[in-house]
């Protein structure tokens, strides 16, 4: 009973503060709008399939080296479907092609070996020398196109070998070089029919929700330390209330505010910005509750170990911003070292769980992400118990 009385007083105290209303309820909604609008170009909103820009390819070919197979390569590149994706620029030397690639005037370099036709005609594997640029999408498109040509050439070589062994005649050719063949080697589409790409509003709604749930833990930490700094903790401890009840009561009061904050952000972003939060409300609620729990336990640890509210606030601010950055909360981070660091943050697993819910992901994958979040919560709870036993919450 004492716990709930303290929780009610904590709830009333927080709701009376204008800074709490502004920082926890209004500010995240404003940031979702600003970031979602400003960075919408980084996202493929809805189910719209983006148009790919043609890839500029520098072709290096020795003078007088164009044989039958090389001619087939150029015919293949001039076919209507391929010409939409590949723009060929003839370059005399590999050195010049490399210079163009480094200056980003071309996206990809293909060098035709001097003995290319001879190698193919003699029954050896057809190979081109490829030099990749800095654009991963262009590399993927160009690589797929030229690999397709080589696959057809090598397939024709294999057919020729088998046919010749049977006493039949078969010329090496590439079927896709024929203009009558409408087949395209590169097609852009969705990986599946159920998952959709999240929009900028969805991404930043999740990122800001997670970040400000952590900030709600910061307000709880500030409340715990203000009781000690203002010497009102003496009065509370003079009453027949245990120290644990005071701590838990304040955590519950702050958690209720965080729950209200979650409902406001989800509801308002859905109504005003059209944010689709998926079709798994139970899993969404579980994820948010785990984030609130983690935020409160972390706030308790910081409060118990800090000597003043200013040092605790500074530490919480730096930590929350750092975790948000490494988890891609301010801008999506490509696969790499920074993203690997983000996997050790609360934000990463919270965002991953909710984004998978938004994209109608596999239930087992969603539960796996939630399980990681639950494991972090259990670890933080154990640390809170250890710190409380050693330090305690005293005036």
TrEMBL record:
Gene Ontology terms, cellular component aspect?
plasma membrane
Bilayer-crossing regions: 20-43, 203-225, 246-270, 282-306, 318-338, 366-388
ABC transmembrane type-2 domain segment(s): 170-391
Q: How does the record classify its membrane topology?
A: Multi-pass membrane protein
Where in or outside the cell is it found? Cell membrane
Q: What is its main location?
A: membrane
Keyword DNA damage part of the UniProt annotation? no
Q: GO molecular function of the protein, one example?
A: ABC-type transporter activity
Q: Which UniProt keywords apply?
A: Cell membrane, Membrane, Transmembrane, Transmembrane helix, Transport
Q: Which PROSITE patterns match?
A: ABC_TM2
What InterPro entries does this protein map onto?
Answer: ABC-2_transporter_component (IPR051449), ABC2_TM (IPR013525), ABC2_TM_bact-type (IPR047817)
Which superkingdom, per the lineage?
A: Bacteria
Q: Which PANTHER family match?
A: MEMBRANE COMPONENT OF ABC TRANSPORTER YHHJ-RELATED (PTHR30294), MULTIDRUG ABC TRANSPORTER PERMEASE YBHS-RELATED (PTHR30294:SF29)
Q: What family does the database annotate? A: Belongs to the ABC-2 integral membrane protein family.
What is this protein's record name? Answer: ABC transmembrane type-2 domain-containing protein
């Amino acid at each position: 009973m004492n716990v709930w009385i303290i929780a009610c007083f904590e709830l009333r105290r927080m709701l009376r503060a204008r800074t709490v209303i502004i920082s926890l309820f209004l500010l995240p909604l404003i940031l979702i709008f600003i970031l979602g609008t400003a960075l919408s170009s980084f996202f493929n909103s809805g189910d719209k399939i983006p148009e790919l820009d043609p890839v500029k390819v520098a072709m290096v070919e020795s003078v007088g080296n164009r044989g039958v197979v090389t001619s087939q390569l150029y015919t293949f590149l001039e076919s209507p479907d391929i010409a939409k994706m590949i723009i060929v620029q003839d370059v005399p030397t590999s050195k010049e092609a490399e210079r163009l690639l480094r200056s980003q005037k071309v996206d990809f370099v293909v060098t035709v070996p001097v003995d290319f036709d001879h190698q193919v005609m003699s029954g050896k594997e057809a190979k081109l020398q490829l030099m990749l640029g800095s654009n991963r999408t262009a590399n993927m498109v160009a690589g797929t196109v030229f690999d397709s040509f080589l696959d057809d050439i090598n397939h024709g070589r294999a057919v020729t070998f088998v046919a010749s062994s049977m006493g039949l005649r078969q010329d090496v050719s590439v079927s896709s070089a024929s203009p009558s063949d409408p087949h395209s080697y590169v097609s852009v589409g969705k990986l599946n029919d159920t998952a959709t790409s999240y929009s900028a509003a969805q991404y930043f709604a999740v990122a800001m929700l997670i970040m400000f749930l952590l900030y709600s833990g910061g307000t709880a930490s500030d409340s715990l330390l203000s009781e000690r700094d203002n010497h009102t903790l003496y009065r509370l401890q003079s009453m027949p209330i245990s120290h644990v009840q005071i701590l838990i009561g304040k955590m519950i009061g702050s958690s209720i505010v965080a729950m209200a904050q979650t409902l406001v952000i989800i509801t308002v972003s859905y109504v005003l910005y059209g944010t689709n939060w998926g079709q798994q409300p139970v899993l969404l609620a579980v994820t948010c509750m785990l984030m609130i729990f983690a935020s409160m336990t972390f706030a308790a640890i910081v409060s118990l170990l800090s000597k003043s509210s200013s040092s605790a606030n500074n530490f919480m601010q730096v930590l929350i911003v750092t975790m948000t950055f490494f988890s891609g909360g301010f801008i999506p981070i490509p696969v790499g070292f920074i993203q690997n660091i983000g996997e050790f943050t609360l934000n990463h697993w919270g965002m991953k769980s909710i984004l998978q819910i938004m994209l109608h992901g596999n239930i087992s994958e969603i539960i796996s992400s939630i399980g990681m979040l639950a494991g972090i919560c259990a670890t933080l709870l154990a640390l809170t118990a250890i710190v409380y036993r050693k330090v305690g919450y005293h005036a």
